[in-house]
Amino acid sequence: MSEDYVDPGFRPTHVVPQDGLAAWEAPDVSRPTAPLDPFLPVQLLARRGEWAEIACANGWTAWVDGRLLVAVPQPPPTAGRPLSRSQDPRPLLTRATEALDRYSRAAQELAAGRMDRAAFRQDTRGLRIGVVVDGESVWLYDDAAGRWMYGEGTRLTTFATTTGPGGSPSAPDRRRSRTPAPQPPAGKPAPAAAAPPPGPGTTRIVSFDELDRDGDA
Known about the structure:
- This protein is α+β, with helices and mostly antiparallel strands and 217 residues long.
- Helices cover 18% and strands 24% of the residues.
- The strands form three sheets. A five-stranded antiparallel beta sheet has the order 6-5-4-1-7, with no helix packed on it.
- A hairpin with a 4-residue loop joins strand 10 (147-151) and strand 11 (156-161).
- Helix 1 runs antiparallel to helix 2 (117-124).
- It is elongated, with a radius of gyration of 22 Å.
- The N and C termini lie far apart (76 Å).
- Residues 76-80 and 170-206 have low confidence and may be disordered.
């Protein structure tokens, strides 16, 4: 199909992010195709989990990681119409608050001696939250979708993903790796990192079992 051809029914719903976007012939990572150029307008045709089928103005179609598409602004919703769950930050804020409250209660019980370390590990197992607040800006980690969301009060958009399309977010080994902290968007300088205090050159990671043995000694 000619690159100069423009489908008369083409109505862009999204644009490709500024770094471009990988594309596939089907929702299958073993079938890559030509990547999409930055800021290219596309029309969303279908979704399949984290995959999205898109069409370009010339009629060419491909599958991409739908979480990374940038939505074209639409007219504001009718008065009284609720925001969709993908846009509304309140569900993620509620989940983060509940997880932090659960961790805080368990930490208080451990510090007061009313809970041992084994019970603390069991009570906090599976908790994963991520919240960064900088004035009106907020970054929230969506553990279910494996992505960081960015918002400024009423809407959330995907900021970064931790898995490829079709992948399942998995809990990291907390003794060896950490999920990278989100970086503020362009135009907002990142806070300067504090200088480390003086001390020994190498820090050794100590497991809970070692701490238990030291406490029993």
